[in-house]
Amino acid sequence: MRRYRTITNLLLCTGCLLVIGAIGFIFYALGHPEGSFPWGLELTYLLYMAYIVVTVLTFLFARFLWKKREKK
């Protein structure tokens, strides 16, 4: 039971840090419109989507483990 609590807290903190990082990146990008990536736009969108998927999955896994912990 203690293991689930530790993993759940870790996933929750990781998800929060990912969201804070995304918000920080958005504010930085809005302040520096001249910036760009050295690769193509398709790869940039692929990286954005992967980041969003990983962020959502960390919250979903944390919720799943939280529910599993409550059942015990």
N- and C-termini, Cα separation = 8 Å
Which sequence of SSEs, written as H and E, runs from N to C? HH
Strand element count: 0
State the helicity in percent bands.
over 70%
Describe what is shown at a glance.
The chain has 72 residues and is mostly helical. It has one domain.
Your description of this structure?
The protein contains 2 helices and no strands. It has helices spanning 2-31, 41-71. With 72 residues, the chain is mainly alpha-helical.
How would the blueprint of this fold be written?
Layout: H1 2-31, H2 41-71
Brief descriptors of the model:
about 70 residues, mainly alpha, 2 helices
